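Re: that chain you flagged

S.,

Sorry for the slow reply, it's been a week of failed gels. I finally had a moment to sit down with the sequence you sent. For the record, here it is as I used it:
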Amino acid sequence: MREDWKYVLLRPVLEASGREFEFEFGLGEYVFDLAFTAERILVEFDGPEHAYMPAKLTDMAKERAASQAGYRLIRKTIRKTTCISPDTILGI
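Prediction finished late last night. Pasting the structure tokens below so you have them in one place:
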């Protein structure tokens, strides 16, 4: 996985949950950070650069692709330089 380092804290929590998941889930021409495949939920962990163009345009296109494929997309804001905390996905 190209960004495996950022999932180090999140992976054991997800494995213990018993939920079906996949990091860096490919859907069409896009890759989504996390997919709960059985539930058809995609999660994008967005760093600060997602507040600006051209990332916003890509984000909109990814949202359309997810919706058209029957997935719900959830965006979570993170700090780019840190591993993703398990708290980030609470309530999903």
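What I noticed first: The chain has one domain: 4-85.

Talk soon,
D.
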